[in-house]
Design a protein that fits this description.
By secondary structure, the chain is mostly helical. It is 81% helix and 0% strand.
Length: 165
Amino acid sequence: MRFKLWQWIVLITPIASIAILLLIAAGLQIHTWGLSWIWTIFILVFLGWRWLLVLWTRPMVEQVEAAVAAISADMEAVTEETQSAIGNAEVGAQIETALETILKESKGDRPIWEDQVTFFQRCQAVVVAVAEAYGQNTQYPLLNIYIPQAYGLVQGTVEDVGRAI
């Protein structure tokens, strides 16, 4: 669709009048502040530099957003795998039985601040029980647990026991 000259003039007139009004107002304000025209040039150069910076870095932002989207998709896949593994009733029952056994054994333990060794042995027993439940087909299931997972497991178990008490 091609515009005629008078259509271009009608379309450009409001934008041009606003731009001219802003330039006149800025010029008058700079004059009342007692600044010279050099500051106007400095500000225009700075605004142009900022515009170019935004224009040139836009592809990088899109690349970062694409990478974040890919990582999010990977994390969702891992979460679905984990939920399917957690959803296994047999594994859940095995873990529940192991946790009940560990909790029954720990009923007579002294407080944590008096006997930290026993507390950490109980934590290790929880991690071992969960690792063996999920890694039944592996020779060394503890090697398949990452440190943050084990920490989260122990912390979650301690919080659950704290809520139960």
